[in-house]
């Protein structure tokens, strides 16, 4: 189905700038069935140290690579236990820590992983009963691109061996935005400035030699495995790369273990099997699902998709219908990406599996409820005009719950205007672009308890292009390892709330939480509440600007930011550079400012550089902001780089209770207030210690 609006924003900025001074069979679907629910607790979930191969191995359970006690009450409430490979028994090699973009450790959860050669293993001790695993891994690309497959043996207590087939067909991108699948390609944009040579290659004589492959990235994928039976806490799951594997190496990042309940059954429903759907996946089931939807609409029944794998290679258009699966581990809607004979009016050159509401211009869809199934796409390259998202279109008065969305372009992309959408308890993994994006006039909607890992762009985004997104809440979500851009990004809008989220390990050209006047967004108006969130190992090196970003950063690019913005109760842990950054792009730094931002009851535990970096005109207030393990002077205040006798163009207002020190004393010392110039354009980085209880 053709679409009127492209499914990802275009024109990501890549030129140098941004403040650079220079250059039971019948049972409801349980939380466990869909892989989400209440976080398990107890002694098995206390963090601890792993041991070398052959030693006694206690399970180490983490959340985003942290002791769960450090982030209690924040992030998605999930039903699986995360165990990092670097804490497990292995005869392989731990790689990392490293936060340098375009490296395997940088894209790993916690910035560490285990690299195995053929014949080597990593062994996890189950912290609780489990009958299912999710394995996050990386294997090499094919020399000419396109990926390979390779085996991985899985045993429990040395028995019941099964062999999983890993693939790199959905990972390994190269080059400049919007990237290439060809490791041997030359620069996509030789007229763009690049850090590698500090030049514009096409305008440089002699032309620089750029090593190939250029900027390899997006290394990881994940695979879900049902173990066939339930195992107990203390049982040992060993992942072994067989001798003679086709992969020269296999990196294991982590394992998630959980109990998956029995398949959910809907008896009084339009069962897609009765309309000709094929649960073996051999025949295309799209038309059969359409027939079931049409019947359900006439008879006011739900549509039920029982266990099986159903081939669907196009959009399923949904309106006024409830579609229920047996649980995301059992009901899988899987498609091939299909070349279009001619481009669609919206510019799409492919189609693929997805559930789409009608276009907003055609009135949109309403009363759509989707739950309990997986969407497995086939997207291997980024084409911004393609509508190959897992969920799309316009959906008002609707809900999406308990889905697993994998290998699509964007997990969920909505083009408004639309209202009253609830998106809850979904897992969105290994996307080529965003995890979720509310684009253009999405209002009064909730995004809660979703788990996003390895998005290829912003994990969760509100993008107020043309019409403001308003009164939306992003609450108790987890975003891990977005390989490009931000964990959570708010581009304009009115009266939105970002609360109780956990964001970890952004890799490049973005950070954990971003407030941006960018991409043609409508101005920020009303209030923006950023409350009780935790970020960890955030604050990336911005390759194009050649500076470090804050864990939370504000950017005035298209217009000033002057709404009432309240950052309250947030914790910024182990920030690679700054905890807080306010910046205006260099070409517009004298046009736009950032004001009316208020920080209160904040904890900053570890910064590589400063607590606050100001590279814009404007002001902010600070109250009860406690900081420790600060790597540089507490405030790096460059303003707009005019260095006037009156001081910086950015003022910091101390409302009291700001404690803790930088390298020169209190992080917010009297001599720094309100606008003393303390500018070090690119301060040295001091790696902070690991976060600990406050």
Plain-language structure description:
- With 694 residues, the protein is mainly beta.
- Helices cover 2% and strands 37% of the residues.
- It is globular, with a radius of gyration of 25 Å.
- Mean pLDDT is 92; it is low at 1-55.
What characteristics describe this protein?
about 700 residues; mainly beta; 24-stranded parallel sheet; nine-stranded parallel sheet; disordered N terminus
Topology:
Elements: E1 81-84, E2 89-90, E3 93-95, E4 113-116, E5 121-125, E6 130-138, E7 149-156, E8 159-167, E9 221-231, E10 236-240, E11 250-258, E12 269-271, H1 286-299, E13 302-305, E14 308-311, E15 315-317, E16 321-325, E17 331-334, E18 338-339, E19 350-351, E20 354-356, E21 365-366, E22 368-371, E23 374-376, E24 391-392, E25 395-396, E26 398-401, E27 404-406, E28 412-415, E29 418-419, E30 421-424, E31 427-429, E32 436-439, E33 442-443, E34 446-448, E35 451-453, E36 460-463, E37 473-475, E38 478-480, E39 488-491, E40 493-499, E41 502-504, E42 513-517, E43 524-531, E44 534-536, E45 541-542, E46 547-548, E47 550-556, E48 564-568, E49 571-575, E50 578-584, E51 593-607, E52 612-615, E53 617-630, E54 635-637, E55 650-654, E56 661-662, E57 665-666
Distance between the termini: 53 Å
Q: How large is the radius of gyration?
A: 25 Å
Mean of residue pLDDT?
A: 92
Largest sheet: 24 strands, parallel
Percent of residues in beta strands: 35-45%
Q: Shape from CA axes?
A: globular
Name the structural class. mainly beta
Low-confidence stretches: 1-55
Helical proportion?
Answer: under 10%
| Number of strand segments | 57
Discrete helix count: 1
């Amino acid at each position: 189905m053709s679409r009127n609006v492209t499914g990802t924003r275009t024109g990501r900025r890549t030129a140098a700038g941004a403040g650079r001074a220079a250059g039971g069979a019948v049972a409801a679907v349980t939380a466990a069935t869909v892989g989400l629910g209440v976080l398990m607790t107890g002694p098995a979930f206390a963090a601890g140290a792993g041991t070398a191969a052959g030693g006694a191995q206690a399970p180490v359970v983490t959340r985003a690579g942290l002791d769960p006690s450090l982030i209690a009450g924040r992030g998605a409430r999930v039903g699986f236990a995360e165990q990092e490979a670097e804490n497990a028994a292995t005869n392989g090699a731990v790689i990392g820590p490293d936060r340098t973009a375009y490296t395997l450790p940088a894209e790993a959860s916690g910035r560490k992983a285990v690299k195995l050669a053929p014949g080597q293993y990593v062994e996890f001790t189950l912290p609780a009963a489990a009958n299912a695993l999710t394995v996050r891994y990386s294997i090499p690309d094919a020399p000419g691109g396109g990926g390979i497959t390779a085996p991985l043996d899985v045993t429990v207590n040395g028995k019941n061996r099964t062999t999983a087939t890993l693939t790199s067909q959905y990972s390994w991108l190269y080059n400049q935005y919007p990237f290439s699948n060809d490791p041997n390609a030359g620069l996509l944009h030789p007229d763009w400035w690049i850090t590698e040579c500090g030049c514009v290659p096409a305008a440089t004589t002699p032309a620089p030699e750029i090593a190939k492959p250029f900027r390899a990235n997006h290394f990881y994928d994940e695979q879900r495995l049902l173990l066939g039976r339930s195992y107990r806490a203390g049982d040992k799951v060993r992942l072994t790369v067989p001798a003679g594997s086709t992969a020269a190496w296999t990196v294991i990042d982590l394992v998630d273990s959980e109990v998956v309940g029995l398949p959910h059954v809907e008896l009084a429903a339009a069962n897609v099997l009765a309309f000709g759907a094929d649960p073996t996946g051999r025949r295309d089931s799209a038309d059969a699902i359409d027939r079931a939807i049409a019947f359900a609409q006439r008879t006011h029944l739900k549509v039920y998709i029982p266990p099986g794998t159903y081939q669907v290679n196009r959009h399923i258009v949904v309106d006024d219908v409830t579609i229920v699966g047996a649980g995301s581990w059992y009901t899988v809607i899987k498609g091939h990406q299909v070349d279009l004979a001619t481009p669609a009016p919206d510019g799409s050159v492919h189609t693929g599996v997805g559930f789409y509401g009608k276009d907003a211009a055609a009135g949109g869809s309403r009363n759509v409820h989707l739950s309990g199934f997986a969407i497995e796409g086939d997207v291997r390259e980024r084409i911004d005009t393609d509508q190959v998202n897992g969920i799309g279109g316009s959906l008002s008065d609707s809900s999406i719950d308990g889905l697993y969305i994998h290998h699509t372009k964007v997990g969920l992309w909505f083009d408004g205007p639309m209202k009253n959408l609830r998106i809850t308890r979904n897992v969105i993994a290994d996307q080529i672009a965003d995890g979720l994006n509310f684009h253009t006039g999405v209002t009064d909607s909730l995004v809660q308890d979703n788990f996003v890992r390895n998005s290829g762009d912003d994990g969760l985004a509100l993008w107020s292009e043309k019409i403001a997104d308003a009164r939306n809440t992003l609450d108790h979500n987890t975003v891990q390892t977005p390989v490009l851009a931000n964990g959570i990004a708010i581009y304009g809008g009115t009266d939105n709330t970002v609360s109780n989220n956990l964001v970890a390990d952004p890799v490049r050209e973005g950070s954990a939480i971003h407030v941006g006047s960018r991409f043609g967004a409508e101005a920020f108006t009303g209030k923006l509440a950023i409350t009780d969130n935790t970020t960890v190992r955030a604050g990336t090196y911005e390759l194009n600007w050649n500076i470090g970003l804050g864990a939370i950063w504000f950017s005035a690019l298209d217009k000033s930011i002057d709404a009432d913005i309240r950052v309250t109760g947030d914790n910024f842990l182990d920030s690679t550079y700054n905890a807080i950054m306010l910046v205006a792009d260099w070409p517009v730094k004298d046009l736009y400012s950032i004001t009316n931002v208020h920080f209160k009851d904040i904890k900053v535990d570890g910064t590589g550089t400063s607590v606050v970096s100001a590279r814009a005109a404007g002001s902010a207030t600070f109250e009860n902001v406690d900081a420790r393990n600060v790597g540089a002077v507490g405030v790096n205040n460059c303003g707009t780089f005019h260095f006037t006798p009156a001081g910086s163009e950015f003022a910091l207002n101390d409302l009291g209770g700001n404690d803790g020190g930088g390298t020169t004393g209190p992080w917010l010392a009297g001599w720094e207030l309100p606008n003393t110039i303390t500018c070090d354009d690119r301060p040295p980085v001091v790696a902070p210690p690991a976060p600990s209880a406050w």
